[in-house]
Amino acid sequence: MYLIGLTGGIASGKSTVARRLYEHGAVHIDADDLARRVVEPGKPALAAIAEEFGPGVLRHDGSLDRAKLGELVFGDEEARARLNAIVHPAVRELSSRLIAKAEQEDPDAVVVYDVPLLVEASVDHPFDLVVVTSAPRRTQVKRLVEERGFDPIQAEARVDAQADNAARLAIADVVIDTDGTLAHTMSQTDALWHRIEEEQAGRSVGGRS
Fold first, then answer.
1. Do the annotations mark residue 11 as ligand-binding?
2. CA distance 176 to 185
3. Residue 62 annotated as lining a ligand binding site
4. Which of 12, 123, 198, 203 could form a disulfide with 133 if both were Cys (CB 3.0 to 4.6 A apart)?
5. How far apart are CA 116 and CA 10, in angstroms?
6. Helix segments in the chain, DSSP class H
7. Cα distance between residue 15 and residue 7, in whole Å
8. Is the pTM of this model over 0.70?
9. What pLDDT, in 10s, does the model give residues 136-162?
10. Fold equal for 1-26+109-203 and 31-108
11. Where do the annotations place ATP binding (predicted)?
C-alpha cells in the first residue's frame, strides 16, 4: 500500500487534486466525511459531545445540531480543544480501520487520506508522502466569495482561522501550486501520480509491496 496525506487550506484546490488522484485509481478517504460519521446518532462521540456541552447541542431527533455546537466553540479556543479531544481520536480510529481495509482488499492500493487539519490535529498515520495544495490567501478568499457565496469578511475569517500555510509547507513532501489554471493543477497532479507509480514499481523490484 502507498499512503498519501493530502492537506491544504480552505479553498486551496485540495478537492480538485483528490478527485484527480481518484480518477487515476486511488482510494479516497475524506476526513471531513469521517468527522460527520463519528458523530451520528448512536455513536460514542456524539454521546460524549452531549455530555460535555449539554443536551442543547442535540436536535429533537437525537442528531447533532451543528449550528448550536458551532456557536459554542466558535472563537473559544478552550471549548474547541475540548471538542477536538472527543472528535479527533474517533476520526483517527475510523480512518485507521478504513486504511487497513483498503490495504487488505488490495495490497498495492494507493490510498489518499484527504485531511484538512493534518497539521492542527497532529495526524500521524505512517504516510509515504505528504502532499500540500497551496494558493495565496487572496486566491482562497476570492474562491470562497465567488464559488461558495461567502461574505468577504467571513471568507477572510475562515482562511485566517486555519493553520498558517508555512506550518503546512514545512511538512510537505510535495507542494501543488493551485494558483494558476485548472490545467496547471491537473498536470502537477498527473506528475505526482507518475512519481507514485515509479516508486511502487521500485518497491516491487526491491521485493516489497
1. yes
2. 7
3. no
4. 12
5. 8
6. 14-24, 31-37, 44-53, 66-73, 77-105, 137-148, 152-160, 165-171, 182-205
7. 10
8. yes
9. 999 999 999 999 999 999 899 888 877
10. yes
11. 11-16
Helices 77-105 and 66-73: crossing angle in degrees, nearest 10, is 130
The answer to the question of whether 15 is labelled as a binding residue is: yes
In this structure, are residues 162 and 11 in contact, taking their beta carbons and an 8 Å threshold? no
CATH number for 1-26+109-203 (one of 3.40.50.300, 3.50.50.60, 2.60.200.30, 3.40.50.1010): it is 3.40.50.300
- Take residue 12 and report the three cell numbers written for it: 486551496
Extents of the domains making up the chain? 1-26+109-203, 31-108
Overall fold of domain 31-108: Rossmann fold (3.40.50)
pLDDT band of 119, cuts 50, 70, 90: confident
CA 200 to CA 198: how far, in whole Å? 5
